[in-house]
Amino acid sequence: MDTAGTHKDITFAPMNFENSLSFAKALDEKDGLRHFRNEFYFPSHKGKPCYYFTGNSLGLQPKAAESAIKVELDDWKNLGVEGHFRGTNPWMYYHKFLAENAALVVGAKPIEVAVMNQLSSNLHFLFASFYRPDNRRFKVIMEAAAFPSDMYLVESQVKFHGFNPEEAIIEVKPREGEFALRNEDILQAIDEHKDQLALVFFSGVQYYTGQVFDIRGITAKAHEHGITAGFDLAHAAGNIELKLHDWDVDFAAWCSYKYLNSGPGSVAGVFINERYANDNSLPRLAGWWGHNEEERFRMLKGYKPEPGAAGWQVSNAPVLSMAVHKVSLEIFARAGMQHVVEKGRQLNAWMDFVIRDAMRSNPSLELQIITPEFPGRGCQLSLLTGENGKKLFDFMTENGVIADWRNPNVIRMAPVALYNSFEDIYHLGRILQSFK
Ligand SMILES: *Cc1c(COP(=O)(O)O)cnc(C)c1O
Questions:
Q1: Pocket flag, ligand 1, residue 232 (CB < 6 Å)
Q2: Which residues fall within 8 angstroms of residue 415, CB to CB, at 6 or more apart?
């Protein structure tokens, strides 16, 4: 299947795995990132740390989070409003302390990244600038069965501009009997609708199937026809290799609480290509925090944006949630995104192997892995279950596995490079083998 993903630049050599505890331990022994596991808290199950595979939904808490928040609370307690300038990390500039490390995660220049707001709200702000339909070009092309927030986003944006969603939204669907989209079908659909498309908008990693989309190829195809290309990277940021600048993506947005471990509902990030850094012709929904920094407190009329993505900021920095995001991004910077991606792929390959081995030996497991093969996957695996799917899921939960159930019948699991071990996955396999 042609689901050419975005990982071409990171080599991945499949290994000859052996399903044993000693083999899992040997893999952990060789893992250069293994020490990072100690920097996170694991929820417990019957007094033991659970097997946590839902980093795709809510990443675990970095142990440094609490003290990072405490620093800001103390500055607030001791300095009051003066914390904006005299704080340990002066709040006035807080957003600037994050852009550089966030840029490393998504393969961007710091000027192309701003940490602000939350994901769905950011997408609306980005659409305000980059979805500019006219009577000829007004359509948006996206994957069918996208994450609900994205469906509502596009539907409401199209209506906001006075168009009919039925007509203006083109959805690309998997072929009959298939779960993933074929890359060639996406590109062909863009070709087919090119004269009426105002925007190409896909996710980076499909939340349900775990499919990695070819961001570079989709962007190139859109640009071939002069169409803007934007991406929702909720399940991609901190998981797969991203090179947003080199791939020439126009805009993207992501949240920080999934693979980026920054806590529930934490502050999000946006990418806006450097070519728009000083483009004041784009419409924007503006607020004071995007205004030119020198003049921000002069309280004058007339919006003058900061250069780059910072010029899309609206409100002042939510420091308490940014404090956690800051320590999380520092962990990524120390680990190196390339290493995170490589280990994520190895964990995924090992999990795939262990699950298939359990399926061979245990006929009660009615499972089908619906995530495409590399390079069409990151670290997530989606398992289509049979009649007894919910029973299996409950059995896993009782045995200390935290996975995630998605209606109608999919179990999603994502082993995460920064805190999951190969041994975690070995135990998952044992639990699956014992299901009756
Ligand atoms: C998780 C997720 C969201 C969540 O949006 P919030 O605004 O952070 O609540 C949006 N889109 C996708 C694709 C997601 O996976």
A1: yes
A2: 53, 55, 344, 347, 348, 350, 351, 379, 424, 425
| pLDDT over 80 at 9, yes or no | no
For ligand 1, is residue 153 a contact (CB within 6 Å)? no
Which contiguous run of DSSP H or E holds residue 342? helix 337-361
Distance 119 CA to ligand 1 centre (A): 6
Give the CA count within 13 Å in the CB-facing half-sphere of 173. Answer: 4
Atom from ligand 1 closest to the CA of residue 57: 1
Of 289, 309, 335, which marks where a domain is finished?
335
Taking the C-alpha atoms of 101, 107, 113 and 115 in order, what is their torsion angle to the nearest 10 degrees?
Answer: -50
Count the neighbouring beta carbons within 10 Å of the beta carbon of residue 80: 10
Residues 210 and 257 in one domain: yes
Query: Are 121 and 210 members of one domain?
Result: yes
- State how many domains the chain has: 2
Angle at 239 between CA 425 and CA 96, to 5 degrees: 135
Which tens digit of pLDDT belongs to each residue from 314-356? Answer: 999 999 999 999 999 999 999 999 999 999 999 999 999 999 9
Of 311, 335, 359, which residue constitutes the final position of a domain?
335
Q: What's 353's domain CATH number?
A: 3.90.1150.10
pLDDT of residue 13: 56
Are the C-beta atoms of residues 435 and 362 closer than 8 Å to each other? yes
Q: Mean of the per-residue pLDDT values for the chain?
A: 95
Residues 6+ apart with CB under 8 A from 221: 186, 187, 190, 191, 200
Q: What are phi and psi of 319, to 5 degrees?
A: -60, -40
Residues 183 and 275 in one domain: yes
Q: For a pocket test of ligand 1, which of 117, 142, 147, 254 has the largest count of ligand atoms closer than 8 A to its C-beta?
A: 147
**309, 113 in Cβ contact below 8 A?**
yes
In whole angstroms, give the CA distance from residue 371 to residue 376: 8
Which of 116, 120, 254, 262 most suits a substitution to test ligand 1, by most atoms within 8 Å of the C-beta? 120
| Residue 142 burial (C-beta neighbours within 10 Å; 0-12, 13-18, 19+) | buried
* Atom nearest to 150 CA in ligand 1: 11
**Which tokens in the block code for residue 370?**
């619906």
Q: Closest Cα to residue 209, out of 390, 416, 409, 63?
A: 409
| Structural domain that includes position 306 | 68-335
The greatest distance separating any two alpha carbons of the chain, rounded to the nearest whole angstrom, comes to 72
Q: pLDDT (tens digit, 9 = 90+) per residue, 29-77? A: 999 999 999 999 999 999 999 999 999 999 999 999 999 999 999 999 9
CA 272 to chain centre: 16
Tokens matching residue 369: 């892995």
